Each structure stands twice: as structure tokens, then as C-alpha cells.
Amino acid sequence: MPELPEVETYRRFLDDIILHQPITAFEVRDAHVLGTDEDTLRQGVVGRQVAATRRIGKNCFLELNDGAVLALHFGMTGDVGAYRDDHDAPRFTRVALHLADGLRVAFIDPRKFGRIRLAASVEAYQKAKKLGPDALDVSADYLKQALGGKKTILKPLLLDQRITAGLGNWIVDEVLFQAKLHPERIANSLTDKEFNALSVAIQLVLQTAIQHEATYRHFPASFLIHAREWDDSATPGSELHKFCPRHPKTLIDKSYVGGRATYVCPRCQVV
What we know:
- By secondary structure, the chain is of the alpha+beta class.
- It folds into 2 domains: 4-128, N-terminal domain of MutM-like DNA repair proteins (Alpha-Beta Barrel); 135-264, Helicase, Ruva Protein, domain 3 (Orthogonal Bundle).
- It is built from 7 helices and 10 strands.
- It has helices at 4-18, 38-45, 122-128, 140-147, 154-159, 169-179, 192-211, and strands at 23-28, 50-56, 59-64, 69-73, 79-83, 93-99, 104-108, 115-119, 253-257, 260-264.
- The chain has a 4-stranded antiparallel beta sheet with strand order 1-6-7-5, covered by helices on one side. Strands 2-3-4-8 form a 4-stranded antiparallel beta sheet, with helices on both faces.
- The chain is elongated and about 60 Å long.
């Protein structure tokens, strides 16, 4: 699933090619991805220009010059692209915005779980979808306020898009590793110092991922993500087992927390 770093990369791509270009046509190749009916979308988009792009969590927004927004959610496999001629359209293009300069902007989605919607504003969409603040905007004070009173384990709370928008499964594992916090810590047991560490880790992980355009193999060697490959049939200590970046002789543990595959260092992250 495209996570916050991928969607921020998509937003920057769209920002470079679509701003202030009149939209001359709204081409629907597969209506399955439409969250607003086709006629309403076409009437709301054609003849307009995109004045700005925004993002909240995993949602990308094209702000139109009449104040409305085209909201893009990428589901499991969504992406964006650009082309000029029909024969160059990316495979699995479901919708294309035709621009006045001849460029076409493609909404690509092999599995068709993504959605395109028209909303009155970014704020209206955020309220309707019950999205919390974007993860890049959260502070230690906000985390303490939102989580500090909860007698719930930490990882599912961080994955809750109503609390913080944009933290997916691998990101939360990485954030907790960088902050040296166990995913099963009870939220209200965190100290002020630990909330500060959590906030710093969120910024570190997201900014690093965005900087590398979500190409995970380019992440620093100090990141847990390089140890997420796992083979349960491997002999402990073999090359198929992955070790903690901080403690080369400590095996990373794999378990399930809140129904999600979870990776922790038993030495760095103690319950």
C-alpha cells in the first residue's frame, strides 16, 4: 500500500506538472475507482485549474481554482503517471485528466481499491473521513495529549488514522525501533522523555523516506527496515535471519501485535 512517503512523492510529481493548467477532459476508463459519480466529477473538474496540491496522511488533494478539491486515495496499489498519446498510457490507467498543453495525468490502480472523490474542501474531507493531523505535523505535546490517557498498547494507537494520519505498519515498526519503544507498551506509561523520542522518531523516519523517494533499499543501515525480511524456516543465526542494526548479534523478533506483523529488537525495545 502506498504510505505517506510514497503519496508525498506523488504529490510533488503532480505539483510539477499540473498546476495552473486548464483541465480539458476527464477520461474514465474504469468507473470502479470513482467515489463520486462520473457526471459530478466531470462537471466539477473540466474547465478548472489546479491551484495547489496538498496531502494529509495517505490522501493527496488537487485544490481547484473554484475552491473544491479532487481527493485521491491510492488504496493498495495506486500510483500516478503522465503521458501524451493513448498508446503511451500506463498499464492500469483508470482515470486520466487531460490538460490544455496536451499532457494527460493518469490515476493508475491495478487492484482498483483506490478512489477519486470531489470534496468541498480539504478540511471537509478530513472531517468526513475522521482523519487526525498529518503525521509530519504532530508534536510531542500532541502525542502526549492524544495518547497519554489511553490504557491501550502503543502500536494500534499509532496506526489509528483518527489519531495520526499517515503512519502505516512498517513505518510504526521503524518509529518504535528508532524511539527504543516496544509496540506493546501501554500508552499511558510513556514518560515525557519517551513522548519526545517518539515525536523525533516520527520526523526522522518520514523525512528519511521522503528524501529517498520511498526507495527503501537506500535507507540508512541504522534502519530496522533492512531486517524485515524473515523466513520462519531458517536456522537461528543463519543468513536468512536478520539482526538488529545496533546489536549485530541480537536477532530481530517477529510477532503479531493487533493482528499486524511486527518486528522488534528484544534488546532495544523492552516492554
